[in-house]
Amino acid sequence: IGGSDMYRQQILDHYKNPRNYGEIEEPTFTHVGENPMCGDTIEMDVVLDDDESTIEGVAFRGDGCAISQAAASMLSEELQGMETDVLEEMDRDDIIDMLGVDISPMRVKCAVLAEKVAQDGLEIYLGEKDLDMTTTEEDD
Ligand code: FES
Ligand code: FES
């Protein structure tokens, strides 16, 4: 991982002490995704408010490299209270900015796994995307 020490420390801290790690009992939706290259997984529970415009709660479980897991932890904090419109518009550049480090092309897939899980889960829930069971980094 390139970039400043401060950001590297932050990534390691999120990896070792993931925020919002666990389950939510009655989520609005749950979605799971994996990186087929390595088998890393992220599963996310999301709670939406009554009019489905704002994210009220997020929890995730996962297994994998420091970048995929730290990105999930950092994203789980950013998603709290976020408008669903904002989540739908997030892209890989937002995640790279959030991480604050240089990410090699190979590892961008690690970085964006959690974001794709959250976004695909939301779009499937809202009926904007065909139902499928898992997200992979290939279904761009
Ligand atoms: Fe698999 Fe990072 S090595 S997502
Ligand atoms: Fe191995 Fe992400 S697939 S570094």
UniProtKB/TrEMBL annotation:
A Pfam family the protein falls into: NifU_N
InterPro entries (UniProt xref): NIF_FeS_clus_asmbl_NifU_N
SUPFAM superfamilies, per the entry: SufE/NifU
A molecular function (GO) term: iron-sulfur cluster binding
GO terms under biological process: iron-sulfur cluster assembly
Classification via Gene3D superfamilies: 3.90.1010.10
All residue ranges annotated as the NIF system FeS cluster assembly NifU N-terminal domain in the record: 6-128
Protein name according to UniProt: FeS assembly protein SufA
